[in-house]
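Suppose a colleague, Dr. K., hands you the sequence of a protein chain of 237 amino acids and asks what its three-dimensional shape might be. Before reaching for any lab equipment, you can write down a predicted structure in token form. Begin with the sequence itself:
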Amino acid sequence: MKLQVNNISKQFASTTGTTLALQNVSFTVQTGDFVCIVGASGCGKSSLLNIISGLEKPTTGDVKVQGNIGLMFQEAALFPWLTVFDNVAFGLKMRNVPKLEQKETVKKYLQLMHLEHFSQHYPHQLSGGMKQRVALARTLVLNPDVLLMDEPFAALDALTREHLYTELQTIWQTTKTTIIFVTHNVREAACLGDRILVFSPRPGTIKAEVPVNLPRPRDINHPAVAQISQRVAELLK
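The predicted structure, expressed as tokens, is then:
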């Protein structure tokens, strides 16, 4: 077991009262799993990732994680004054990794992301999809045991997203990183996940778990992917 979420509930206080965002959420994730969490906006998906990552504390319940966590947001949030290489190397520098090791490790992940020819470019010179690949490389270079991804492709156009679906599957199979991927896109979840946790509207609870037993790499336009996404969509109604 790589991660265990035990009876997580989260309540937010405001001037108008309290809001229960999550209620009694429990699930486990095994090493190397690719788990997608799907639900409508406001169902607590992002709050759950923040709790797992340690950015927020649950009102009740707890999370047990074996190893370190990487977190990737919807926005790439790159440092605009740094090159692609230096953005990817940033975390390694903060850990005082020797310069030669930094160089070799960054080079490895730039090649994995097909960014080796853009190492000296700055973020403003990159497309949206390339920025997200840089952000992913910056996260993976720290070798996280669990990677949390919060709707990382939501702001991209459809063609770019489809290209990144294939790349992410290849990267996941190469790195064997355990991934928890939050999305509201049911087709995206069916394309990427080994299993899909379907959340109810607020307060978010796990309404159903849908296994995805399809060979990889998967094409988001494949009829089998569409069939599973339709099943998930029905559960969300």
